[in-house]
Design goal:
single chain; about 200 residues; globular
């Protein structure tokens, strides 16, 4: 069978982007690649502060957040909004039990910015904004974890208490770093809150 040269070229570029982010990041690491060129990755966001629920209490912890990224065969096909949501959950998996409105591990919702064919660099950026609570929905109709959605709507100040390193060196972080962006700006408004212009990271 003839190779899909367009897909293969895209995957080669994706590998380059993954290696570039890892080389320029103190928090992002690639642990495993599957295929040649790779169509799946295992990696980790290291030393991330996030929330967990234990015995009915919500606690802030710090540790690694493993993930899986898979470029599926239908990744480049146009999709409806509902199909995009399903595709996003198949493409990116969070392998940690975060207490987060957008996450029910391993499933996660990458938000409205995700589209079929989204470059890998942008996928990683969206996922990092997600696990660092810079991307949080407070609308229960969109939430994967409705209990967490209600909790963060009632406690919009909590994401601001997290210390967030920039994904790439030279970027702006949060919690006391110059130029930091608040993840909670807009929480309680019933819409997805994101950092301003998430595409610029």
């Amino acid at each position: 069978m003839d190779k899909d040269l367009v897909r293969e070229g895209w995957l080669c570029e994706a590998e380059r982007q993954m290696e570039e982010i890892a080389a320029d990041s103190n928090t992002f690491r690639v642990l495993q690649k599957v295929g040649q060129p790779p169509h799946a990755y295992r990696g980790v966001f290291e030393d991330v502060e996030f929330f967990v629920q234990r015995n009915g209490n919500v606690e802030k912890v710090c540790g690694p957040i493993p993930f899986e990224l898979r470029i599926t065969e239908d990744y480049f096909k146009p999709a409806t909004f509902e199909a995009r949501h399903s595709l996003g959950m198949r493409v990116f998996g969070i392998l940690a039990d975060l207490y987060h409105p957008n996450i029910t591990a391993p499933g996660c919702c990458l938000g409205s910015a995700f589209r079929p064919g989204t470059p890998v660099e942008e996928l990683v950026r969206l996922a990092y904004h997600l696990v660092t609570y810079q991307l949080v929905t407070t609308d229960e109709r969109d939430a994967m974890n409705r209990d967490a959605c209600r909790y963060f709507r009632a406690h919009p100040e909590l994401p601001r208490t997290l210390s967030v390193a920039p994904l790439r060196r030279g970027g702006a972080g949060r919690a006391g770093r110059a130029g930091g962006s608040s993840a909670a700006g807009g929480l309680g408004s019933g819409v997805t809150a994101t950092v301003r212009d998430i595409q610029e990271g």
